[in-house]
């Protein structure tokens, strides 16, 4: 209830200043981006959303169904690799939320599937922002661009916004998604400095929670694979988790709060998959869950991520237990899982 009240008060505060303001969300059909669009519309903004194909119902129907969409949502075709394709959508916007970026954990051609889209796409969007004299750009990055640097992560270690992933290390270990996020952020900061464009970069961790889109995205699929009986083992890994609604709201606060700057880690809690299985088992005792770790190695250690900076924007983070429940209930509602 406290979480709902907190988000509700934020909506009310934003609504009084949002009327008449036009903002853009790139990759609007995506998991995080759809929620950004929804919360912006709830707050009274007029939203320009870009998608790869406005004729594709999987990309548009869930957006057009949102409250306020009929009057205050306009969708545009845009392609990350086509320079200038974002000009029309961004023209006249005060802020751009750049959420469009590929998310694949298993890939065959890293350059074509991830690196070109992430880096060139980010620069294409920023060039359009410069042309349109956009006041602020809020970029969706990832904790992947923060933590992959060889520094130890143990229970007493606190990761914060001063950490940066190391591109050479990413490439050495063939961590292509991590590399894409790291290089895209580097390119964005360089462009920002060279062109005096104000950017804020958001670094969510593994994002789960309710789906607005009809298709399954990579991060929520991780939860589905734990509960659908497809495996008897769980990964020997620990990382952060956060609710998609909190991530979307944090993006909006990064625009609305004048003092917002730099980078923001968005992590409610870091847990091992073993702990995740325990939480799900307690909530849903009838679900058949993996019963052993995927390898015989010692459990991967947990670590901490500072929430001080993201909370300074006024963000409150939904507890992981509630987020897991919302995720599973959404998977059931969308027909991806049945008890």
TrEMBL record:
CDD domains: FR_SDR_e (cd08958). It holds the Pfam family Epimerase. Transmembrane segments: none annotated. Keywords: Oxidoreductase. Residues 23-260 form the NAD-dependent epimerase/dehydratase domain. InterPro entries: Epimerase_deHydtase (IPR001509), NAD(P)-bd_dom_sf (IPR036291), NAD(P)_dehydrat-like (IPR050425). Signal peptide: none annotated. One of its GO terms (molecular function) is oxidoreductase activity, acting on the CH-OH group of donors, NAD or NADP as acceptor. The keyword Ion transport does not apply. This is NAD-dependent epimerase/dehydratase domain-containing protein.
């Amino acid at each position: 209830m406290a979480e709902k009240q907190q988000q509700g008060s934020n909506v009310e505060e934003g609504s009084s200043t949002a009327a008449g303001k036009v903002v853009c969300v790139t990759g609007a059909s995506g998991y995080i981006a759809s929620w950004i669009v929804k919360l912006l519309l709830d707050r009274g903004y007029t939203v320009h959303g870009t998608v790869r194909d406005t004729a594709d119902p999987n990309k548009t129907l869930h957006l057009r169904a949102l409250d306020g969409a009929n009057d205050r949502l306009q969708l545009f075709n845009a392609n990350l690799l086509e320079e200038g394709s974002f000009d029309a959508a961004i023209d006249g916007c005060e802020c751009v939320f750049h959420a469009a970026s590929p998310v694949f954990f298993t890939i065959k051609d890293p350059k074509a599937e991830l690196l070109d889209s992430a880096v060139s796409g980010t620069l294409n969007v920023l060039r359009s922002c410069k042309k349109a004299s956009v006041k602020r750009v809020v970029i969706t990055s990832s904790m992947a661009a923060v933590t992959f640097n060889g520094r130890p992560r143990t229970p007493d270690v606190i990761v914060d916004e001063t950490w940066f992933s190391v591109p050479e290390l990413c490439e050495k270990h063939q961590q292509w998604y991590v590399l894409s996020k790291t290089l895209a952020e580097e390119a964005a900061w360089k462009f920002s400095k060279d062109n005096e464009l104000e950017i804020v970069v958001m670094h969510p961790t593994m994002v789960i929670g309710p789906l607005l889109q009809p298709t399954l995205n990579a991060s929520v699929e991780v939860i589905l694979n734990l509960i659908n009986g497809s495996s008897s083992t769980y990964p020997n890994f620990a990382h952060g988790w956060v609710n998609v609604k909190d991530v979307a709201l944090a993006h909006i606060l990064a625009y609305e709060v004048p003092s917002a700057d730099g980078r923001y880690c968005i992590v409610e809690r870091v847990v091992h998959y073993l702990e995740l299985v325990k939480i799900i088992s307690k909530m849903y005792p009838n679900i058949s869950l993996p019963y052993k770790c995927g390898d015989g190695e010692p459990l991967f250690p947990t670590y901490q991520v500072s929430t001080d900076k993201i909370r300074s924007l006024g963000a409150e983070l939904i507890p992981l237990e509630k987020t897991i429940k919302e995720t599973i209930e959404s998977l059931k509602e969308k027909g991806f899982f049945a008890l």
